[in-house]
Amino acid sequence: MEQKTKATIVWLILNGNTEKAIALLAEHYGVNAPKIKVGLPKGRKKQVLGCYKARDKTIFVLNSDALKEPFIILHEFYHHLRTAADAKHRGSEKHANDFAKEIIQAYKSMMTKITGNIG
Q1: N or C, where is the chain less crowded by C-beta within 10 Å?
Q2: In contact, 108 and 57? CB cutoff 8 Å
Q3: By three-state DSSP, how is residue 107 classified?
Q4: What pLDDT is recorded for position 36?
Q5: Cβ neighbours for 116, distance < 8 A, ≥ 6 positions apart
Q6: Are 107 and 6 in contact (CB under 8 A)?
Q7: Are 70 and 15 in contact (CB under 8 A)?
């Protein structure tokens, strides 16, 4: 995925257009976009900010603020991607974290180029 696309996805999430960001990710990876719901499914601990439920093909987030958190959304999308790809190895939390960090880093790099590292 191009750096510009990664940066755009993060920007969309930060600006509350999470569904469009998810649609871009799904299109890029050739999978159906997961649903996104505010509120955790029954049985989930309130300590988590998000989770992915494969059976429902849904990313759940704790509250509406979490919809604007790129790390949460990208991490949970990774779990969807691994499930949607029917992979034998569903992927670890470390892989999901690395996936999210890589995309966020592209955004940070692009913002540094644009702003000249202001602030």
Answers
A1: C
A2: no
A3: helix
A4: 97
A5: none
A6: yes
A7: no
